[in-house]
From TrEMBL:
It is an enzyme of class 2 (transferase). Keywords: Acyltransferase, Transferase. Its EC number is 2.3.-.-. GO terms for molecular function: acyltransferase activity. Transmembrane segments: none annotated. This is GNAT family N-acetyltransferase. Residues 10-176 form the N-acetyltransferase domain. Pfam families: Acetyltransf_3. InterPro entries: Acyl_CoA_acyltransferase, GNAT_dom. The keyword Ribonucleoprotein does not apply.
Amino acid sequence: MTSVWVGERVRLRAIEPEDWEAFLGFEEDSDAVRNGWRLHPPRSAAEAKKWATELAEQESDMDQVRLVVAAADDGRPVGMINTHDVERMHGTFAYGISIGTPHHRKGYAGEAIVLLLRYMFAERRFQKAEAWVYSSNEPSLALHRRLGFVEEGRRRRSRFAAGRYDDEVLFGMTVEEFTALYA
């Protein structure tokens, strides 16, 4: 038996209340947090537990997903991937991914992205995926290029973090491009 949610390195799964500790730990690396979105003040263990519990208890949605990226070998959380800006009428969606610093450069992000895209294209009939990457996040820029995404545009100086302005680079991949690479 095989699952569309499992690859060689990762398994995508729903968040569980006990995942709070791993995600709170990932927040310790400010640069990594900034690369994903924005830096927030530190939160308490109680707040992190509440966050994980609320996400675990949310009713699932077929198109707006938020999934734990777990190591395939032992199930420990290594990051999270989610879809957003879902436009059913146009068949487009965007996604974001964040991998905890101790788990960088192990192939988790690339495999998780491919698993998510396969689900959204082959099961949900979307026709295009988009990802916004900050121009200072060189590893993510390289990852998206390596995965076959096309750079479609740039919003100049659209984010301020760590005392500097960053561009946002828009990447896109169509279902045909995905199929040619990952059939």
